[in-house]
Amino acid sequence: xxxxxxxxxxxxxxxxxxxxxxxxxxxxxxxxxxxxxxxxxxxxxxxxxxxxxxxxxxxxxxxxxxxxxxxxxxxxxxxxxxxxxxxxxxxxxxxxxxxxxxxxxxxxxxxxxxxxxxxxxxxxxxxxxxxxxxxxxxxxxxxxxxxxxxxxxxxxxxxxxxxxxxxxxxxxxxxxxxxxxxxxxxxxxxxxxxxxxxxxxxxxxxxxxxxxxxxxxxxxxxxxxxxxxxxxxxxxxxxxxxxxxxxxxxxxxxxxxxxxxxxxxxxxxxxxxxxxxxxxxxxxxxxxxxxxxxxxxxxxxxxxxxxxxxxxxxxxxxxxxxxxxxxxxxxxxxxxxxxxxxxxxxxxxxxxxxxxxxxxxxxxxxxxxxxxxxxxxxxxxxxx
Length: 384
Fold this sequence. Notes:
Blueprint: E1 2-3, H1 14-26, H2 36-56, E2 63-66, H3 69-83, E3 90-94, H4 99-110, E4 114-118, H5 128-134, E5 139-145, H6 157-165, E6 172-176, E7 195-199, E8 210-214, H7 240-278, E9 282-284, E10 296-301, H8 306-315, E11 318-319, H9 335-339, H10 344-348, E12 350-354, H11 361-382
Parallel strand pairs: 1-11, 3-4, 3-5, 5-6, 6-7
Antiparallel strand pairs: 2-8, 7-8, 9-10, 10-12
Helix pairs in contact: 1-7, 2-7, 3-4, 7-11, 8-11
């Protein structure tokens, strides 16, 4: 099997599965309980929180465990807006956000908030001059997707942070970091980021667990009330086995992440070159070099259908996607591909290939060969 749908979800590492199993069997107590089993679970929470915080270079008390990226984004966005509802009702975001952010902000737009949707170029990078132009003393939130989940574009968070820091009343700066955490190098502190949401199952950890960084100086109101778990930010009994597995995935990244990322960058470059050499009428939607995540390659093939090619590849035990997993069952075309100005013909023939450390040179060569054959067959049928 050649698995190239790692943006949707990743295969958990063996050591992650071991940690989850160990926690479920040995430390199954409620971390809020006062007896020994509860204290053992609480110890896992504390050590996991430190592992994640150290990886990001932030304080331990600034990390809150969640159920994943969607919840983390919602807590940060809605919590920040609730904390500032008497100060202003202006939000700035981009036209290429993940649905977890875009749909949340659209709900606030329906309910009286003014939203500035910042445009972008064909490479997916947002117009920073336009962002600066839209800032007012009523702007309470700026939310940006750090690495775009469809084409892999990396936004310049350092420059955005500097623009926001110049404001007399600095708006809350939130990042959707689901596709950047553990995959590219950055500093939340130097960029002046107030909150950052990320997920376990994108880094070979378990599903159903993630985390949210909130700067200790930022004001974010909780959305769920109860037993005051997670320092009152996210009430409800913590998913200790999931957090243990998530922490293990982060620990492995601490040790091996740089080496794995370089290998993946080389594989992506090799595949891009082979596709362009062997298949005609191809558009590479992912920016080149350090403007794009090494883990994401978005390709559009003229006079094809992405869904059809996907199933051709699946027959050869190669797994890819056509768009974000959270959008794949919708009927509308990708809002990201529309935003970068891709024409309808190529939009229909788009595939997203997302790499992992398990990928090899042989996998790349085989994928390109099967892809070439599939594209040629689909085109021969469509042109009859």
